[in-house]
TrEMBL record:
Species whose genome carries this gene: Cyprinus carpio (Common carp)
Lineage per the UniProt record: Eukaryota, Metazoa, Chordata, Craniata, Vertebrata
Pfam families cross-referenced by the UniProt entry: Rad60-SLD_2
Name by which UniProt lists this protein: Ubiquitin-like protein
Entry keyword set: Cell membrane, Lipoprotein, Membrane, Methylation, Palmitate, Prenylation
Membrane topology annotation: Lipid-anchor
Signal peptide annotation: none
Limits of the Ubiquitin-like domain: 7-85
Key word Transmembrane present: no
Length: 114
């Protein structure tokens, strides 16, 4: 029962598992993290996290801050948008240089405890 105003997100875990969710343009990254946490898929059991506050969305290689809404990203309605879902305690500061740069790939250090 998708309406034309819904945005279909396919979330991909580091493990490669995927699940699709429907959201509205008014939903923020934090809202999405909470919804996914509250409706955690059965087959994602191994990736279960302790809190929705550490779930981060990555869209086109960039971390989304919690207050960014889907509407602000100008995502296409009626199409599936792919985002990555990762567990991170903190987001890298946008302006800090140096060692932070290697985190841009984000693939290998999903599980490094800093």
């Amino acid at each position: 029962h998708t309406s034309k105003r819904d945005i279909n997100l396919r979330l991909i875990l580091v493990s490669g598992k995927t699940k699709e969710f429907l959201f509205s343009p008014n939903d923020s990254a934090a809202d999405i993290a909470k919804h996914v946490y509250d409706n955690w898929p059965m087959d994602w059991e191994e990736e279960q996290v302790s809190s929705p506050n550490i779930l981060r969305l990555i869209y086109q290689g960039r971390f989304l801050h919690g207050n960014v809404t889907l509407g602000a990203l100008k995502l296409p309605f009626g199409k599936t948008t792919v985002m990555h879902l990762v567990a991170r305690e903190t987001l890298p500061e946008p302006n800090s240089q140096g060692q932070r740069n290697r985190e841009k790939t984000g693939e290998s250090n999903c599980c490094v405890i800093l």
